[in-house]
Amino acid sequence: MLGRGAPGSSRGLLLALLALGLLPRVRGVEQEPGSAHEESQGFQVVTFKWHHVQDPYIIALWILVASLAKIGFHLSHKVTSVVPESALLIVLGLVLGGIVWAADHIASFTLTPTVFFFYLLPPIVLDAGYFMPNRLFFGNLGTILLYAVIGTVWNAATTGLSLYGVFLSGLMGDLNIGLLDFLLFGSLIAAVDPVAVLAVFEEVHVNEVLFIIVFGESLLNDAVTVVLYNVFESFVTLGGDKVTGVDCVKGIVSFFVVSLGGTLVGVIFAFLLSLVTRFTKHVRIIEPGFVFIISYLSYLTSEMLSLSAILAITFCGICCQKYVKANISEQSATTVRYTMKMLASGAETIIFMFLGISAVNPLIWKWNTAFVLLTLVFISVYRAIGVVLQTWVLNRYRMVQLEIIDQVVMSYGGLRGAVAFALVVLLDEKKVKERDLFVSTTIIVVFFTVIFQGLTIKPLVQWLKVKRSEHRDPKLNEKLHGRAFDHILSAIEDISGQIGHNYLRDKWSNFDRKFLSKILMRRSAQKSRDRILNVFHELNLKDAISYVAEGERRGSLAFIRSPSTDNMVNVDFSTPRPSTVEASVSYFLRENVSAVCLDMQSLEQRRRSIRDTEDMVTHHTLQQYLYKPRQEYKHLYSRHELTPNEDEKQDKEIFHRTMRKRLESFKSAKLGINQNKKAAKLYKRERAQKRRNSSIPNGKLPMENPMPNFTIKEKDLELSDPEEAPDYGAEMGGGIEFLANITQDTTATDSPSGIDNPVFSPDEDLSILSRVPPWLSPGETVVPSQRARVQIPCSPGNFRRLAPFRLSNKSVDSFLQADGPEEQLHTTLPESTHM
Amino acid sequence: MGAAHSASEEVRELVGKTGFSSDQIEQLHRRFKQLSGDQPTIRKENFNNVPDLELNPIRSKIVRAFFDNRNLRKGSSGLADEINFEDFLTIMSYFRPIDTTMDEEQVQLCRKEKLRFLFHMYDSDSDGRITLEEYRNVVEELLSGNPHIEKESARSIADGAMMEAASVCVGQMEPDQVYEGITFDDFLKIWQGIDIETKMHVRFLNMETIALCH
């Protein structure tokens, strides 16, 4: 079901985007003729005020074009799998720029440094910081720092000096440049660009160590770039002969001030942010805003103090992530995640497109073949030499050696990007005489690295057989052992009396637990924050989801999909993701008959469907609509509130109960009590039954049956005869809880374990199987329970329209109550969900 | 090194046995003496002198591992009362990083050794099987560092992990089949694909210059 959830949701998103984008445009078009007609009249009913909206309008249109282009690229999977998106966007920018130029002969749209540094860069860097895999990052921090600092200085110096050397030899002809200009150019062209690296490496999937080294370098070298750039720019301004040794020393000092200061600003703001999110319990709806605003303030603050802004916002993200994720509600966490990704990816798209557009401007082009070509050669060669030299040093200290292959990828992955471009555009033509040459060269370098290297790095990685990142399923055992390792290693370091990584990590985590978490985390969050618990929740959730998928596969799909005229809206379709809700319905439906899945086909299907989807969404749906049906009717429109959140205690309860159930099933399996045999027998029988049923095309479907609810109800009633009623209720509750077990940050992966094996499937199966519902007995066709029939006509249009009021009262228990006389039997059901 | 001239023969022997460099052995020896209070052997109580160890939630398991005959390669079960320096080195050598010059087979062997150490820590009754009880025990201790996690949660997690292990190791089970515990082979299976070599090592043992902190 998840498989269908994802495309559905993304389609919905795109539709919304399209609608948003198109609306103004359409209106504009309509207004145009109207205004022309009414021009002569005294009072104008409709006026055409283009200048009034021009600027934001054009911005919105550009964003729209870039987004549409992105859709266009992804229409063809072939193209995007070969050509990186960034390259495509640059080409698109060139084309668009060409069109604009042909129409206007003015390059009116360029990537200005202000826009880039203030609006486009921060989201990307914040995204990088906030989702930084901290352990990996800090584990390789030494390596990253070496590459970022020494590597960048090396690149800047060698490139600048070599170019100067060639210039002296006269190969470049007559240029009005001095040594300092060359060094300035070297310093701005030296830095590996985070935006470009991220854009290209995300598609390449090299192993995580390699990725974090290249990416970390590109983030942290900002401080070096900023300092070098500022130092040389001021030197150029001063004039070469006036630079003294004192200035050089000042430059070095300023490096430490800029980098450490930037980091410090980031950490302080991260602290503030974490502290603020601790107290946002009653303003859930603006909670996500804090994350963005405070991080952005860290960026601006350090910019104001002329510290490294990128470092500040990176470290703000890195440091706050743990506490923020623990403090904010799940909904907010999802919002933050999606908003951040959306902003970052949008900014990235715009950057690359505008890089392309900016290049179409004959006024900035000044060609010097020798200079351009030599720059390309030097940056590539010196990057490679630098990497090899540094790696040689590093490998003497590193545990995990960096192989030759890694070094090749690292040298080749040194992409230059928009940062260099923005910096070079910032140069003052009065001070730097050959600014235009620098600009053109930078554009060429950026295009070359992003397009050519971006295009070839994938084949290169494949050809070199670079160790790829493996997408691992989170395993409970792995986490547990991992935890054990951490403790063992720190103990060994303690015993042998030495300070190592593990020692430091151990001390840090103790400090964190004792002080930081106490200050920065909500009390409730402190409890539930444990990685192992998270993984456990995650696995539980996955189990639940696979049940859904399984139920769906077994045919509930058919009647859910079939259009029904029955308007008894008992099922919530109030999310824009109908498929997940369908699934939850089918879960409900099928849990009575769901057995564990054994055949490979279903496994395969499940795997795909789960992997493809963001299970957060599912989780939300499941949690909102299954577990807490009662609370939904309180839910009227409010700007300040989303859903009542009071599930801390509930969650724990759920957790225990689920586990107890799992455990019981486990025990019974372990002890091999005869219930199993019975279950197995029934299970087989049921499967046989299934097979028979599957040949019956859902003949008895609601719309053909004028009174569907009553017939079914009776059957359901048979199932819940007085004696079993409470049990049944509890069992339903169990099922629901099972679904409601959640993790906060789940990445959709699949665990084939847990449910494949009848023995280890949660006990719902066993108890259900041991009691075959009457309507399942041989000779009868499978008739969907009443819940399946109460399906609303669902189309994207009407579910959106219906959403608010359906949210208000149509929840799971509403249809139970709608059952009339039999109501009281069924009320056990919602009750149990509240235990 | 100068101080150890008299024992240089012995040191050389230990280098061959444990794979540590003689410098490292010197360092560890100094530490050993510090721990034992200049005695030739260490007893369990000596580990109480390590202040940082106290916060470690599984410290008893770790200390126990030092005296486990299986880890000391002295027998298939039981605990030693005291260990001498050689035994101490033997235990430490489980944490030696993998040598880059090793070939594939040696790496595998080394990996197995490391895993065996871990396995022994879990399998406290030395019957070659990690039973549910034993697993729970470890998990409880592991999570005891977090005061907010109750015992019951820890148990649930252990149960979940056990189920996972069973499904990984046995795959499809007959309904009445019973999974009794994780054997060492199963244990290896669980660890398949996990890069233990880069995890289970102590970095400084590789370095030539060691910073002593005590």
From TrEMBL, chain A:
Keywords per UniProt: Antiport, Cell membrane, Endosome, Ion transport, Membrane, Phosphoprotein, Signal, Sodium, Sodium transport, Transmembrane, Transmembrane helix, Transport
Polar residues compositional bias, start-end: 826-835
Location of the protein in the cell: Apical cell membrane; Early endosome membrane; Recycling endosome membrane
GO biological process, one term: sodium ion import across plasma membrane
Signal peptide: 1-28
Keyword Ion transport: yes
GO terms under cellular component: brush border membrane; early endosome membrane; extracellular exosome; recycling endosome membrane
Comp. bias regions, Basic residues: 681-693
Chain ranges passing through the membrane: 57-75, 87-103, 115-132, 144-167, 179-201, 208-232, 252-276, 345-365, 371-392, 404-425, 437-457
Domain Cation/H+ exchanger transmembrane residue range list: 63-463
Segments for region (Disordered): 681-708, 816-835
Reaction catalyzed: Na(+)(in) + H(+)(out) = Na(+)(out) + H(+)(in)
Alphabetized GO MF terms: identical protein binding; phosphatidylinositol binding; potassium:proton antiporter activity; sodium:proton antiporter activity
Similarity comment text for this entry: Belongs to the monovalent cation:proton antiporter 1 (CPA1) transporter (TC 2.A.36) family.
Protein purpose: Plasma membrane Na(+)/H(+) antiporter. Exchanges intracellular H(+) ions for extracellular Na(+) in 1:1 stoichiometry, playing a key role in salt and fluid absorption and pH homeostasis. Major apical Na(+)/H(+) exchanger in kidney and intestine playing an important role in renal and intestine Na(+) absorption and blood pressure regulation.
Name of the protein: Sodium/hydrogen exchanger
UniProt organism field: Ailuropoda melanoleuca
UniProtKB/TrEMBL annotation, chain B:
Keyword match Metal-binding: yes
EF-hand domain mapped to chain residues: 110-145
Gene Ontology biological-process annotations: cellular response to retinoic acid; male gonad development; megakaryocyte differentiation; negative regulation of cell population proliferation; positive regulation of DNA-templated transcription; positive regulation of gene expression; positive regulation of granulocyte differentiation; positive regulation of megakaryocyte differentiation
Subcellular location as annotated: Cell projection, Lamellipodium; Cell projection, Ruffle membrane; Cytoplasm; Membrane
Source species, domain of life: Eukaryota
UniProt key word Cell membrane: yes
Topology of this chain in the membrane: Lipid-anchor
Cellular component GO terms, alphabetical: cytosol; lamellipodium; nucleoplasm; ruffle membrane
Keywords: Calcium, Cell membrane, Cell projection, Cytoplasm, Differentiation, Lipoprotein, Membrane, Metal-binding, Myristate, Nucleus, Protein kinase inhibitor
Molecular function terms, GO-annotated: calcium ion binding; magnesium ion binding; phosphatase inhibitor activity; protein homodimerization activity; protein kinase inhibitor activity
Subunit structure of this chain's protein: Monomer. Homodimer; disulfide-linked. Interacts with SLC9A1/NHE1; the interaction enables an optimal Na(+)/H(+) exchange activity.
Role description: Functions as an integral cofactor in cell pH regulation by controlling plasma membrane-type Na(+)/H(+) exchange activity. Promotes the maturation, transport, cell surface stability and exchange activity of SLC9A1/NHE1 at the plasma membrane. Promotes the induction of hematopoietic stem cell differentiation toward megakaryocytic lineage. Essential for the coupling of ERK cascade activation with the expression of ETS family genes in megakaryocytic differentiation. Also involved in granulocytic differentiation in a ERK-dependent manner. Inhibits the phosphatase activity of calcineurin.
Family to which this protein belongs: Belongs to the calcineurin regulatory subunit family. CHP subfamily.
The protein's name: Calcineurin B homologous protein 3
Organism, as annotated: Canis lupus dingo (dingo)
